[in-house]
Amino acid sequence: MEPRCPYAHVLDSRATDVHAEAAHLRTHGPAVRVELPGGVLAWSVTRAEVARRLLAGRQLGKDARRHWPDWIDGRVGLDWPLASWVAVESMFTTDDEDHHRLRTLTAPSFGPRRVEALRPQIRAIVTGLVDDLRTAAPGDPVDLHARLSYPLPTTLICDLFGVPDDQRPEMRRVVDGVLETGATPEQAKAGLDDLFAAMARLVATKRETPGDDMTSELIATRDASGSRLSEHELISTLILMIGAGSETTVNLIDHTAALLLAHPEQLALILDGAATWRDAIEEALRLEAPVMHLPLHFAVEDIDLGEGVLIRTGEPVLIAYGASGRDPELHPDRPDAFDLTRPDKTNLAFGHGRHYCLGAALGVLEAEEALTALFQAFPDVRLAVPEKELAHQESFIVNALRALPVHLSPAAG
């Protein structure tokens, strides 16, 4: 049986409207053939039930070195625009025993008690950022993305991993570059080289001057006698933790704040005690997940999804994590509406199954602290542009704002 897919879609690398695109794909079947940058074909899964079933099962793998013939044979290489998402060797791109081994290295640091213990550190960063916002002239527009949403998670993750101050600008640049989906092959290869070089520099620095940080802990594990952690796995784990530990939280804070400002009646529910900041965060995760598509999974066996769709062994699969929360089959009651009183806010924003995001609780805690402080300090804050005019990052991987301009208080006079 050959797969019958009457529809093929070139995924919009500029991400003009990721939600409309996902809704369009959802109507065409349980999985739809799409074209990624570089002409790579994959199956897009936008239906929540199908995505959850695949993520919970064993029919998909994450390791391109084992499961993707085009990568194994070199037909897709390091100059592919999305190569950084499969070239690393971390818990993100491994399966079974290797995944368990690599996840165990960092999982204890993100347990409930360890995360809660970070609250004072997070609160101190937030306090400093909010105090800086107070210096803005009344009525002048302020970019919350640049001055709150972005610096909070990036500062925290760099602190946790001991990134020296002089290395932080380059670290942020190379991590941000991974998220662009319109890069040329030359740009993609240069970006990947820069990414590995930045992490290798951090490792070299911490080997020379170790500290009380997670990078030093990983290096000690790597250099211990009998260690099974390779140097490439060490650097790949840093790429994952420093990158994922900041970008998703930036987007979560941005989108939650933007949604509350665009829907003052929902913000009023929180201020009146009828809803909580956690309600707002969960509803934002459902409606505006920080990640839209996360490359890549691979079929480890033929997968018959019905409706004439057969995914062959070795074919790439792109799970649309950000599409699940708006799936009308999962949320039949106004799936595109922002409603803090919604009793069911189920989503796949942080993944599902064995690859569920380790840092989910930390990201939610950061968002809660940032939003609480922002709206307490500036009760009159409002958007400086209409919601529909907010600029989005040109990436189908992340669901991100480029800027979040607001007025913190009414104009003087």
Automatic annotation (TrEMBL):
Keywords: Heme, Iron, Metal-binding, Monooxygenase, Oxidoreductase. Transmembrane segments: none annotated. InterPro entries: Cyt_P450, Cyt_P450_B, Cyt_P450_CS, Cyt_P450_sf. Coiled coil: none annotated. It comes from the Bacteria. The keyword Iron applies. The keyword Oxidoreductase applies. PANTHER family: CYTOCHROME P450 YJIB-RELATED, P450, PUTATIVE (EUROFUNG)-RELATED. Belongs to the cytochrome P450 family. This is Cytochrome P450. It comes from Kitasatospora misakiensis.
